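Design job #97: recover the sequence.
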């Protein structure tokens, strides 16, 4: 018995739908975005010098940044100190993919107490609470997993130090918080050196 053309078409459509459903299920299970190119790769040579060890920083960023088919790193905004009496220093580096994905900033500023510093940095970046970790004089990760910040001692003039933070647009994976912290520490170590700091990074307040 010959199958009618309409029935044939129906069988073909059902077979195609079944294949699409199977593909979607496999794609979901493996985390492969359908119709998307492979995730891009950040190369160490592209990164800002203010991130410190660029090979290590590239590895961290490739682990913590969300999917994008390609990434770009604009030229950093770098404002070095003009001399020994100058207390102005800042750097700004960001990485773009699907929009801006991360900002890493260092800036010299007068010292505060720990609580004031945490509240100010959180208020200026991502909000949320703070979970301290060991680095510099003070350091914390935000409870929403979007930022890590380090305050390192720098100069005796007005108890100036350098605040460094790495701020993500989207939360870091829960198992990658150490990577986020390490990114902030790498940039803080580089800032401490580049700013010509005269105090040890973890020196207590005078």
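Job complete. Output follows.
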């Amino acid at each position: 018995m010959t199958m009618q053309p309409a029935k044939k078409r129906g069988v073909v459509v059902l077979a195609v739908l079944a294949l699409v459903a199977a593909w979607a299920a496999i794609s979901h299970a493996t985390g492969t975005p359908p119709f998307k190119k492979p995730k891009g790769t950040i190369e160490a040579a592209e990164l800002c010098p203010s991130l410190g060890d660029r090979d290590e920083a590239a590895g961290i960023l490739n682990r913590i940044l969300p999917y994008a088919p390609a990434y770009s790193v604009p030229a950093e905004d770098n404002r070095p100190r003009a001399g020994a009496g100058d207390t102005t220093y800042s750097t700004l580096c960001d990485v773009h993919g699907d929009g801006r994905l991360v900002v890493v900033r260092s800036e010299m500023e007068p010292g505060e107490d720990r609580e004031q510093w945490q509240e100010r940095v959180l208020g200026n970046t991502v909000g949320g609470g703070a979970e301290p970790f060991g680095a510099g004089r003070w350091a914390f990760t935000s409870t929403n997993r979007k930022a890590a910040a380090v305050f390192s001692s720098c100069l005796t003039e007005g108890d100036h130090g350098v605040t460094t933070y790495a701020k993500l647009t989207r939360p870091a994976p829960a198992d990658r918080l150490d990577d986020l912290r390490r990114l902030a520490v790498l940039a803080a170590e580089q800032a401490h050196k580049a700013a010509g700091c005269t105090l040890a990074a973890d020196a207590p307040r005078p």
